[in-house]
Amino acid sequence: MGTGLQKKVVIVTGGTSGIGEAVTRRFIQEGAQVSIMGRSKDRLDRMSDEFGKNLLTIQGDVSKYEDNQKIVKDTVEKFGKLDVFIANAGVFDGFAKFLDVSPEAVEEAYDYLFDINVKGSFLGAKAAAEELVKTKGSIIFTVSGASFYPDGGGVWYTASKHAQIGLLRQLAFELAPDVRVNAVAPGGTLTALSVIPPLQPYVKIIDNDTKAKNIRKRNPLQIAMSSEDHVGAYVLLASDESKAITGEIISSDGGLSVRGLG
Ligand code: NAD
Fold first, then answer.
1. Residue 157 a catalytic site member
2. Segment 235-249, tens digit of pLDDT
3. Mean pLDDT over all residues of the chain?
4. What pLDDT is stored for residue 262 in this prediction?
5. CB 89, CB 62: distance < 8 Å
6. Does the CB atom of residue 39 touch ligand 1 within 6 A?
7. Do 187 and 253 contact (CB within 8 A), yes or no?
8. Quick check: pTM over 0.85?
9. Are strands 33-38 and 55-59 parallel, antiparallel or unpaired?
10. H helix runs in 80-224, sequence order
């Protein structure tokens, strides 16, 4: 028996790298047809060359409604329907410290990061909702350990990832019984998640080995997670095997909630 993703039509934002790319690869392997939105034309072309007719690529910006509308429209035109919308694109604040950052940069960083992490999630869900009602489909948000705990980022990232949870809960309530709305909350993962320009002067760039060491130290399973480690959670939430699950968040984080007091 397969994972039930065969013939599912799925949109993944930020599907050209990191977690979104791993999800895209696995879903196509499982027989899904996938559309990805990304910013880099080179990366989109590379994925397109690799996957051919089972992949649609759209260059766009999740913070623009018309780009979200375009990917939904083009997906339905090409693949005939939409079953799952994965709002995954995101950016990071690099753990910038609130006290260090100038008021101007606080504001600029807020607009920049919330536009992508929060507004992008709102607008993607809005653009997809009508088609998802037709298929009794689902939305999956990529949230974070920072959706629950401090020190998974600075204030911008932590607040934005908390905001996604509010969106998820209210949407799961409003879109029932037609559309399920869930999330995956990865812990620290070795990707190239980028620090937004307004905060770059305030953060230290750390190399991947140090990052892996830090991540391992912080979670009880002591895993420096890779993008592929989270994919199973998306497979479950996208498939009909989870038809009774809505408003839930699967933490895929090496056990952050059981770190204990030590
Ligand atoms: P990544 O940088 O590889 O992936 C993010 C993708 O989003 C990139 O392809 C980027 O180009 C795209 N993107 C950014 N802004 C965009 C915009 N305006 N429009 C369209 N695409 C845009 O990093 P990742 O770690 O795979 O991040 C994916 C998601 O996982 C994010 O939501 C992130 O917050 C979340 N997450 C990451 C970690 C981690 O430690 N890496 C932990 C928890 C959650």
1. yes
2. 999 999 999 999 999
3. 97
4. 78
5. yes
6. yes
7. yes
8. yes
9. parallel
10. 103-114, 120-135, 155-175, 208-218
Q: Which atom of ligand 1 is nearest to the CA of 186?
A: 43
pLDDT, residue 2, reads 78
Cα 191 to Cα 188: distance, rounded to the nearest angstrom:
9
Return d(Cα 140, Cα 19) in angstroms, integer. Answer: 13
pLDDT tens readout for residues 101-147: 999 999 999 999 999 999 999 999 999 999 999 999 999 999 999 99
9-251: CATH number: 3.40.50.720
- For a pocket test of ligand 1, which of 193, 223, 251, 253 has the largest count of ligand atoms closer than 8 A to its C-beta? 193
In this predicted model, what pLDDT tens digit does every residue of 162-212 receive, in sequence order?
999 999 999 999 999 999 999 999 999 999 989 999 999 999 988 999 999
Dihedral pair phi/psi, residue 198, rounded to 5° = -60, -20
What's the confidence (pLDDT) of residue 206?
87
4 lines ligand 1 (CB under 6 A): no
Handedness of CA 216, 219, 223, 224 (dihedral sign): negative
Backbone angles phi, psi at 118, to 5 degrees: -105, -55
Question: How many Å apart are CA 156 and CA 47, to the nearest integer?
Answer: 31
CA distance 198 to 192: 17
Closest CA to 72 of 142, 5, 13: 13
